[in-house]
Amino acid sequence: MTQIGDREYAESYTSDVEVVQFSPDGNYFSFITQKGNLENNTVEFSLHVFKSKEAFRSPKTETVLTFASSPSGSDLSIGVA
């Protein structure tokens, strides 16, 4: 299951948490998702970027970065898209 990467939001689902970040000019916004990978025993995070003007037109996401961490946090792998 893929969910919002912010642990505070994921645990409480409150609107007090800013999950989305906008670029200074407002043309883009981004957020992080997380999902478990049972095969590798890791948690994978992805940074997604959208064009703001296309937000309500089912836009394609641009995943610009992915990284995975072991549950203990001792192993980390990073991939740049």
Summarize it.
This protein has 81 residues and is mainly beta. It contains 1 helix and 6 strands. The protein has one helix at residues 7-12; strands at 2-4, 21-22, 28-37, 42-51, 62-69, 76-80.
Explain what the structure shows.
The chain is mainly beta and 81 residues long. It has one domain (2-80). It has one helix and six strands; from the N terminus they run βαβββββ. Strands 1, 2, 3, 4, 5 and 6 form a six-stranded antiparallel sheet that branches. A hairpin with a 5-residue loop joins strand 2 (21-22) and strand 3. It is globular, with a radius of gyration of 14 Å. The two termini are 21 Å apart.
Radius of gyration: 14 Å
User: Could you tell me the strand content as a percent range?
Assistant: over 45%
Largest sheet: 6 strands, antiparallel
Structural class: mainly beta
Tally of DSSP helical segments: 1
Question: Strand tally, please?
Answer: 6
Measured between the Cα atoms of the first and last residue, the distance is 21 Å
**Estimated helix fraction:** under 10%
Overall, the morphology is globular
SSE topology string: EHEEEEE
Mean of residue pLDDT?
Answer: 76
Number of domains: 1
Contiguous runs where pLDDT drops below 50 for at least 5 residues = none
Key descriptive features of the protein:
6 strands; 81 residues; 1 helix; single chain; mainly beta
Chain-wise SSE layout:
Layout: E1 2-4, H1 7-12, E2 21-22, E3 28-37, E4 42-51, E5 62-69, E6 76-80
